[in-house]
Design goal:
alpha+beta; Phenylalanyl-tRNA Synthetase, Chain B, domain 3; four-stranded antiparallel beta sheet; 9 strands
Amino acid sequence: MKLIVTPEVATLGICVAMARFRGAKVSNRSNPLEKRKKEALDAICAIDIEAHPVLAAYRELHRLVGVEGVVPPAQHLIGLAKANGRLPNINTVVDCYNLVSAQTGFSIGAHDCAYLLGDVAFRITGGGERYRPLGEPEPVPVKAGQYACMDDEKIICLMDVKQCEETRITKPTSEFVIYVQGNSRTTPQDVQDGLQRLSALVTDICGGTYEIVGQAP
């Protein structure tokens, strides 16, 4: 499995680093992780969403591809923390990357390798791709000119906003990839550091091992 970022996507300022995990145990909840989430909450709630340079760059990226008003995932998580006094609980892998996303501002995705076909590629959409958003029973139409993370048969995440239903992380997941996506206000080193931070957290909470698959461009 390779990580690909096409030149057309790279010109938008997108840089991606990805790791592959094996042998991690996905569970509903982890007390040590919940403790870390609580310890990080004050700092997360203190983030100024409008002034945060990484979040502002994601909003600008969305405008560049013609999708005005889409909230970056990290911004959404920070807003939930401010409103509810906590980060959501999904499962241990998702909660790990949500925590790091809220702390850093990075957009992060995770996908079950059992449902990936071929390479993981960031491409500009042509409009005919297959995409079944998370929670939806059927595929939905895709506009041309947006960017998406795809495997060889489908979109696995449209922009950095919503992944597909097929590759979501669940308790039976035994092997998965996680990528950290940067933008025009982040450096390749920032992205790499974010992935290393997240990978250490995932293996600490969930066990298993990981290898860095690649970074592009």
